[in-house]
Design goal:
The chain has about 525 residues and is of the alpha+beta class. The chain contains 12 helices and 30 strands.
């Protein structure tokens, strides 16, 4: 099944390079499939200034090991930023409606319009729309939506289809849609007619997936307060070099560059880290020449339509170094997840520490035993950490008073002295304003695979430290007291996965890797 984008772009080859570059960028996000999920909520749930959505992230930041999160307005914002380096005046729908320039159409329905008036308005909207136009609407309920017009009677948008986040913060568990991503291509008729539309198309694991039309976007529904059309394409500058590459050299290619090491894990000092760069050709063009550059090393091969090719590379780093290789495909930069290098436990050391900590935890019903026993066992091997959960949290985070409730923010990261795993912290009581423009500062998707044998997890249920707990990861199971009171447990398999997933919705958590402080 040919992708809708290819048909659209063929119809607009006579348009400016700006239009082609913007549509190619939209295609690149669409092709990430279920690696790109919907989230419009803030990671902190108290003052709500830490967006989980990643407006500054390129399409390639979405990969099998790292989900990318966007919502409707941040998706459109990202399209313009990644294509032109242009920051739209706002990245929230209700602000876009008021601030986005130039505005070419605005209307507030009275819901008393005659059928003739509505038909005239629909005809006017359909006639004025141009590829790259931004369409926004606002409901009387206080919600709204933002979309991009592709041309040829199609729109593209990011939607949760009824959910606000792919994480349930109240239930503390994942809520993401399997089988397809959050980017959808829809018929313009869903906006103008509310019926008789073609199927909505999303990208699935094996190609485009047809879904039921989404009639929630009908512009003349009783709940619509106002809607508008904006044309920022008229005021942006030239496309960025990487955006131009997507129009020709990498159009229809899905590129990923990933270290073999799971996200969140540390590479041992001097150890080799394997990287795999994958290129899937989702276009209809066969025999495409692919050049992959990994730092100074280059590999060239050919790939046919709907086939995948890959190349492997190796890097190593010294203690404290962050590996961040430069990867390009046909000259286009491809995002590659960073890897932190440091001292990690040998299998004998991990076994020795695990035996001591597990024994101490299982003999105690205290929630902080894991951190105390862990520090004691690590201390015998030269680690330089001490204190209880409260002391460690205070050492890692600043505390801020707020009328809505106290919150924490991360102090400057220094794994060699604070012993905290790089980026593995968060919780609904932790603010990270920088997450609005930095998508590598804090984990947005904690998984069991991010933990390493010997890791110590600390949590608190509130800012007053009334219920602090600590847990130890043996490499196979998580050990600790899984409540403010109760008996110690050892959880493995799915139970361990669920626990680690729940941490993301806790008040505050941090993963310690005490071996990083060892010589």
């Amino acid at each position: 099944m040919p992708l809708p984008f290819l048909c659209i772009m063929e119809k607009y080859t006579d348009k400016t390079i700006k239009t082609e570059a913007l549509l190619a960028m939209a295609e690149a996000y669409f092709l990430r499939g279920e690696w790109l999920q919907y989230d419009q909520l803030s990671m902190d749930r108290i003052v709500r200034i830490s967006p989980r959505r990643e407006s500054f992230a390129p399409p390639e930041a979405a990969s099998p090991s790292r989900r990318l999160h966007l919502d409707c307005s941040s998706f459109v914002w990202a399209l313009y930023f990644m294509t032109f380096g242009h920051m739209l005046e706002a990245d929230l729908t209700w602000h876009m409606t008021n601030l986005l320039r130039p505005e070419v159409f605005y209307y507030e329905p009275t819901h008393k319009e005659t059928p003739e008036t509505i038909a005239e308005l629909k005809s006017r909207i359909a006639g004025l729309l141009q590829p790259g136009d931004v369409i926004t609407y606002f409901r009387t309920t206080g919600t709204g939506h933002t979309m991009l017009y592709l041309g040829n009677g199609s729109i593209i948008n990011c939607s949760g289809y009824g959910i606000m986040s792919d994480y349930d913060y109240s239930g503390c568990h994942g809520n993401y849609k399997k089988g397809h991503g959050a980017i959808y291509i829809e018929d313009l008729k869903t906006l103008l007619e509310g019926s008789d539309a073609r199927d909505t198309v999303a990208m699935g694991e094996d190609g485009p997936v047809n879904l039921a039309p989404n009639y929630r976007n009908y512009l003349f529904a009783d709940t619509i307060h106002r809607f508008s059309v904006h044309r920022p394409l008229d005021v942006v500058g030239d496309p960025l070099p990487d955006a131009l590459k997507r129009v020709r050299e990498t159009q229809g290619l899905v590129c990923t560059a990933e270290p073999e090491l799971p996200a969140g894990c540390t590479a041992g000092s001097g150890d080799q880290v394997k990287y795999r760069v994958t290129v899937s050709n989702e276009s209809e063009i066969s025999g495409r020449s692919i050049e992959i550059r990994f730092n100074e090393e280059a590999k060239i091969f050919f790939v046919n339509a709907h086939e995948t090719a890959a190349a492997e590379f190796v890097l190593s780093g010294s203690d404290g170094e962050i590996l961040s290789p430069c990867v390009t495909v046909n000259g286009m930069n491809v995002f590659c997840r960073q890897v932190h290098c440091g001292r990690i436990l040998t299998s004998d050391e991990a076994e020795q520490i695990s035996a001591a900590v597990v024994r101490a935890v299982m003999e105690s019903a205290k929630g902080e035993t894991a951190v105390a026993a862990g520090f004691e066992a690590y201390g015998k091997l030269g680690a330089k950490l001490h204190g209880d959960c409260r002391t460690v949290i205070t050492r890692l985070f600043f505390r801020h008073d707020a009328l809505s409730g106290d919150v924490f923010s991360r102090r400057t990261t220094d794994p060699h002295t604070d012993g905290a795993a790089y980026g593995l912290y968060g919780g609904k009581g932790v603010i990270s304003p920088a997450s609005g423009y930095s998508f590598t500062d804090r984990t947005r998707d904690l998984r069991l695979s991010a933990l390493m044998p010997g890791d110590v997890i600390i949590t608190s249920d509130n800012a007053l430290f009334n219920c602090c707990r600590s847990f130890y990861y043996t490499g196979k199971s998580v050990v600790g007291v899984f409540g403010c009171s109760g008996e110690p447990e050892e959880r493995s398999g799915e139970a361990a996965e669920r626990f680690v997933e729940s941490l993301f919705g806790s008040y505050i958590f941090a993963v310690l890797r005490p071996s990083l402080t060892m010589d």
